[in-house]
Write a structure and sequence with these properties.
The protein is an alpha+beta fold. The protein is about 35% helix and about 10% strand.
């Protein structure tokens, strides 16, 4: 590059001296300032548009609201007719009765230093012993008084048995002892043995609050006298431990199955 051109040359011309200026980098560096200014102007325009758009839209919405309003017309009403004094007034409405008036209770004022009046002081015991108590009622010893008729007889109501309670009644010694008792005392009826009758008899009875057994009923029956034999054994049972509800002994229903089965040697 000559000295005359060196004074007027730009920095890009000096950098790309002797190089291929057709390369894209030279054009980019040469037009950098112009591209930068153009980018700034475009960004500033986008910022201004974005900032002013909400304000412009609000103006359009206000105009639309004003256009959409309807004009309201008012009608003047005429004066009411004069009231006729001879016309009776309308009956009063059926209002509920007013609540009863309550009297506010005012607690008494107790003054600790207030003196007790003389008439409020009780008389001494000596004076009370001298006072005549008045007429007395004496009982004739010869009179026939029946004290049993003074009060009506008390009728005890029988408590209804429960089906289930917190603590069910139990045979003395438990279920195993009850099975041993039944096997020891049961006698196979001859009629059932001769006719090869087998089966299960189900009895229901009440274990009372004192442990006694009562009200024996048959829920399942088989022939040959097996049911009568099962009832006989139940009547031989000792007192049970009664059932309890809330810690109190109560009568309870109990179902007992008794099985009759012939052995190989029978």
């Amino acid at each position: 590059m000559e000295a005359k051109e060196f004074l007027t040359a730009s920095f890009d011309d000096m950098v790309f001296e002797g190089r291929n200026k057709e390369y894209g980098a030279y054009e980019l560096r040469k037009n950098y300032d112009r591209f930068l200014m153009l980018a700034l102007l475009i960004g500033l325009g986008i910022y201004i548009v974005g900032f002013t758009t909400p304000y412009v839209l609000s103006l359009f919405k206000t105009a639309e609201v004003e256009v959409g309003k309807k004009k309201i017309s008012y009608t003047e009403l005429s004066e009411p007719p004069p009231i006729d004094k001879n016309t009776p007034p309308p009956p009063p409405p059926n209002l509920p009765p007013p609540p009863p008036k309550t009297i506010k209770f005012t607690p008494p004022v107790i003054k600790p230093d207030e003196e007790v009046k003389q008439e409020d002081v009780p008389p001494p015991v000596e004076e009370l012993q001298k006072v005549d108590p008045g007429p007395t009622t004496e009982v004739d010893p010869n009179a026939n008084v029946n004290f049993n008729d003074a009060a009506p007889p008390v009728v005890e109501t029988k408590q209804q048995p429960f089906m289930y309670v917190e603590q069910m009644p139990q045979f003395p010694g438990g279920e195993k002892a009850m099975t041993e008792f039944i096997n020891k005392n049961i006698r196979y009826p001859n009629a059932a043995r001769e006719n090869n009758i087998e089966g299960k008899v189900v009895l229901q009875f009440v274990v009372n609050s004192d442990g006694e057994i009562s009200d024996i009923k048959v829920l399942r029956d088989i022939a040959g006298g097996c049911t009568d034999e099962a009832k006989r054994v139940v009547k031989l049972m000792p007192k049970w431990s009664p059932g309890k509800q809330n810690g109190n002994a109560v009568p309870v229903y109990f179902n007992l199955p008794v099985t009759f089965k012939l052995g190989s040697g029978d």
